[in-house]
Structures are given as C-alpha cells and as structure tokens.
C-alpha cells in the first residue's frame, strides 16, 4: 500500500498555515448537510465534537461511559505543555518542537510535531477563555512547572487535576452544542465495527451496553478518538474500560496500524502489591520537580529510609544525567529504575521499587508549600498505601501508561481508509518512540480544537459523497457479523474467566514486550499468544446474555481483540532491530546502556496491514526525513 503523508511543502514554520489556506472550504450553509460520527468523548473526542458542532456540522457523539466526564482523560494529573514562555526562560515554538522531536527519539514526523507546537499556545488561550482554572503565579500570569525532557518550564497545570479540568472545559463546550441540537449524544455505546460503503468510512455498528441492542449509525465521515492500548499489559495506569477494540476493528477493515511496539512505561507509579490488583495508580511526573529519586547503595539495606545517611544513598538519575537530573524523559527514568532494581538495590517488600523523596523540598518551602503544589497527589498516595509521604519517601516503580503507536494517519489525520479520521492517542502521530510528559493533553486538544475542523472540511469539499442509510447491505452485514461474534463468545461456556485470560496475556506481554525486550523473549511471546488465543476461543466462560447489561461480555469482546493485537505488538518489536525511546531492544544498546538507534535501516514508520485471520500482517513503510532537527544520538547527560 502506498502511504501518502500529504505533508505540505515550504518551510516548516509555514506548512500548517499554507495547508489551511490551500484546503478547500465548506461554506456555513452547506456544513449542516454533513454528518460526522465522533467515537470517544475524552479530550480529543469532546473537543472535536464541540468544535465541529460549533461550525455547524451535525455530530453524533458516542460515549462508552454514562457521561463524558468519566473519560480516562481525567486521570492526567500533571499538566499540558505550551510555548508561551511566561517564565522568560528561553522557550519558543521551535524549542518545544525540537524537544518533542528529540524526546521521541527521532521517530516522529517533523511536520506534525511543529504543528503541535504551533497549536500549543492557542490551546492554553482557548482553555483559559473556557474558564479552566490553571495555576497562577504571584503576578497573575499562568504558572508553569518543569517536566522531563526539557530545560525550560513550559507545563501549565491545575494542581494535580489538569486532565479533569481540561476535560470539563471541553465537556461544557460539547454540552452547549448538545443543547443547541448540533450534537446528538449516545452514552453507554461501544463501537463494534466500522462500516465501509464504496471503500469509504460511512458509519459504525455499536452495542448499547445497557440493553445489548446492536445499532447502526450512518454519517459522511467517522472520527475515532478512542484512546490507547496500554491495557494489553493487563496491569496499567489506564482505566479498566480502556481498550484497543475500536481501532482494531477499523484496522481489520483496512486502516493500517503503525508502530504498535512504541509503548510508554511511566516511571512514577505506585508499585504492584500482589495478584489481587486489576490496575495500577499513577503518581504525576510533576512530582519529579521537587522529589528526588534514590535507592540505598547497599543491596538489601534493611534500614528505614530516614536512617540511611546521604553518603549511602544512590541518587542515580542525578549522578548519571547531571544536566537533567530527575527530569530526564520517562523512558530513561523507567529503564534506570528497572536497572537498579535488577542490581538488587530495590526497596520495599517486593524490592521492585525506588524512593521518591520530598525531604529536601519540605526543608526548602515547608510542608504547606509542598502541599500547595501536590496536596491531592499526596492524599491519593496515602489513601492507597497508608503511608504519609510528608514523613517517609514515596515508593514508585514503572508501569504501562501510554501508547505512542496507533492507527496510521496522514497530515490531515485521515487513516488509510478514506473518511476515517483518527485523533489523540488512538493515532500514531506526533510522539515518535517516546512521549514527553504533558504532551498527551496537548495532542488531544490540538487534534480536536485546531486540526480536524480544517482537515475534515477539506475532505467534504473535495469528495462527492452519496447519501447512505443504515438499512443498506453494508450496515446489515456488519451488524450480522458483530452478532455472530457475540453469539460465539456466549456459546463457548468454558472453564476459565475472561480475566484469567487477560491476566495471562498481560504476564506474557509485560515480561517479554515490556521495558526490556530481546529476540528470545519476543519469539517466546509470538509463540505463546496464539496458543493462548486458541485456548480462549475453546475454554472461555462468559456469563450472562446479550439482552442486558453484561460487563463479562463487554470484557470478553475487548480481550478477544487484545489477544490478536498482542501478537502484532510483539512482531513489530521483533522486527524493529534497534532501540529507540520506549522500545528498548537489549541487543541494541550503547556501552553505557543507552538506546542505540539504527537510522540507516529503521528511520521509518512501520505501518502494518491486516491480511486476514491467522495470516501474517504486511509491512508498509513511511520514510521519515529530518531537515530541521538533524539526527543525533539523544543525550540527557
């Protein structure tokens, strides 16, 4: 398949401005003739629905929850990046662009990243106008904090609730359009299939999660804003409902899946405590502004952290990366935490944790000063662990958090299926092999508020779209296929629960496709996952029926997709014989254990094409060119 990125020509600082002018427009009177389906109501989906409704399009918004306010975007704590340079410390659009390309280890499109940096300041101004309560400094300007991978303070925040506050801003904008009739909301619906008519995305099949009824909805275009696939690892910081299904069903209809091996492990999560856990809890990266990461220098040191003198503490990030210290990017911080624990220096009962210590910050600004910045995060930690982080250091360890891979999209956010657009974490763009902290919220809102309103209009103005109805054969066949899948799951009546299969898959993927990957482990995963998938379809037990609220069935449908996707995840990681960002192949590292890229062979996007059940995917490549930030070895020392 020929991949056309549709990146406009000209200097990088002018590409997006030029492209917006060159895109064909839909006049205001004609916008009401078009209908857009938006699947997902997190930051990307809610902002897109609100913006498209405001422009005059008819929008159908599908929410897997009872309310968009419950979208997983609320879990983002620490902040959102922008290049306003309020601290006057040297930031600019170009520096944000540079840091993001470098942070992604030179595996993202330059043009997309520069557009993201350009939109960043517009996002902040827009959200302030909505009433988002960002933190402010004494002079009244919006305050900024530092995040990993940057030497300037560019992260805007609303204490430890930034994602929630930004989502409330998008939600109120969306509900305004609901009240006006521009948006029709469909809560408690889960997408089961993408419907193509004449090779174009023209609708979806959804399941009503309360009644079990299958519904068909038609439109002129479909926008998927359904988040990432981090729950393939079972234990992750994602909400339990987060899944790969919408993207995977679109993939099986022809949308290429790009760079699935690019997964982000977050370094500051509360460690696993036992097999009873179904998810993990994130402690914001913002804590690394004031918290110092360390372990005892002596293996198996039994003393309390307060009893270990400074000379016997190993502040490994500060020692190894003096320029960035505790604010190295997430992939670097995560790998180093794993390394010190592998060396026997881990703390806590599991020995798979390191300390995040605020003693110095409390001495400097007092407990009240620390509480003013991070109070709700400290309360969350104490509630979960029953330990007071003001008195004793937090214990943290890396965990699956975000996914940089996703459906391949061109510069217009359109997938390889015409009319199917993909926004936010569900697409592969902007972050490369590693996402810098506070960039997820930036991308989701840039896509929804400032990119898709232009590019979807260009699509409508350039294409002749015949009227379709949900009674057409394509919709009937898609609904019938979904019903067959559901009936098959309910009829198996095996002996193992869906959760047991998901936990086993998570163990395979975390152990072999997690922080450290090698050929033997990846081949082991590629062998084990199909066997587990075969057992699933013979021995899974799905309780209940399809005519009511049935979370067992919901989970079974999602895990069935994870069992297919997990194999592609491992195959992509095996194919990419290099280390870059969050993808760390142990065979490819420098003498001082840093990631070693192979730009000659792998400076491209790996976009995988579905060829059918039990058939190998076909690889398509989009070559990456770096004209403005030249390829170099990434260093934070």
Give a short synopsis of this structure:
The protein has 637 residues and is of the alpha/beta class. It has helices at 15-22, 28-31, 43-55, 93-103, 110-130, 162-180, 245-251, 316-320, 330-342, 359-385, 440-462, 473-492, 498-513, 519-539, 551-575, 599-602, and strands spanning 35-39, 58-63, 80-81, 155-156, 183-187, 189-197, 200-208, 214-218, 221-224, 257-258, 263-269, 292-296, 313-314, 354-357, 394-403, 406-407, 420-422, 496-497, 540-541, 604-609, 618-623.
Give the topology.
Elements (H helix, E strand, L loop, with lengths): L14 H8 L5 H4 L3 E5 L3 H13 L2 E6 L16 E2 L11 H11 L6 H21 L24 E2 L5 H19 L2 E5 L1 E9 L2 E9 L5 E5 L2 E4 L20 H7 L5 E2 L4 E7 L22 E5 L16 E2 L1 H5 L9 H13 L11 E4 L1 H27 L8 E10 L2 E2 L12 E3 L17 H23 L10 H20 L3 E2 H16 L5 H21 E2 L9 H25 L23 H4 L1 E6 L8 E6 L14
Parallel strand pairs: 1-2, 1-9, 2-5, 9-17, 18-19
Antiparallel strand pairs: 3-4, 6-7, 7-8, 10-16, 10-20, 11-15, 12-13, 12-14, 14-15, 20-21
